[in-house]
Amino acid sequence: MPQKILIVTGDAAESLEVLYPYQRLLEEGYEVDIAAPERKTLRFVVHDFEPGFDTYTEKPGYTWPADLSFSEVDPGAYIALVIPGGRAPEYLRNNAELRKIVGAFFSADRPVAQICHGPLITAATGHLSGRTVTAYPALEPDMQSAGATFQDTEAVTDGPLVSSRAWPDHAAWMREFLRVLRSSPSGTYSSPSGA
């Protein structure tokens, strides 16, 4: 039976940041479930970078069904967690069920991949303190307020946590996440020091 990976997301998530890891992990032979506040068809968005804009633009993206609601998730059934970005993390971080799910992965020392605005969720759970991360560059103050050291680079690995800035960094992000997953067939990461 394939090992299972959970993606947590919601409406207004960035299309590529959900679907790229979803398809890449399926390609590697993992079973992947998408969980959201409720089972429904989610409406994703496309964030793009256009000349003359001070920030990214947002357009309608793909729709995709959620496999589970957050209340249906058993974190122990999954070896790893993926937290995409987009605007979804801005409101998802307030969801108590989701904070419990994320906390369970960190407590069990299981791999977590986060990208773009996804770290807003892990920051809300208190699990970034003392870690080194990257995120969408505008989130640098948020990461520092959460007690993390921010690096503006494609991908940062800190133990079982792999973070990335945005969809242009997908290749580096998934390469690092797959390396972490492969180093831990049981889904529990052990740092070289055993900590």
From TrEMBL:
Segments forming a coiled coil: none
GO MF annotation list: peptidase activity
Q: Which domain of life is it from?
A: Bacteria
What is a biological process (GO) this protein takes part in? proteolysis
What InterPro entries does the record tag this protein with? C56_PfpI-like (IPR006286), Class_I_gatase-like (IPR029062), DJ-1/PfpI (IPR002818)
Q: Tell me which UniProt keywords the record has, alphabetically.
A: Hydrolase, Protease
Which Pfam families does the annotation name? DJ-1_PfpI (PF01965)
Which intervals hold domain DJ-1/PfpI?
4-178
Q: What is the similarity comment for this entry?
A: Belongs to the peptidase C56 family.
Q: What is this protein called?
A: Protease
Organism lineage string: Bacteria, Bacillati, Actinomycetota, Actinomycetes, Kitasatosporales
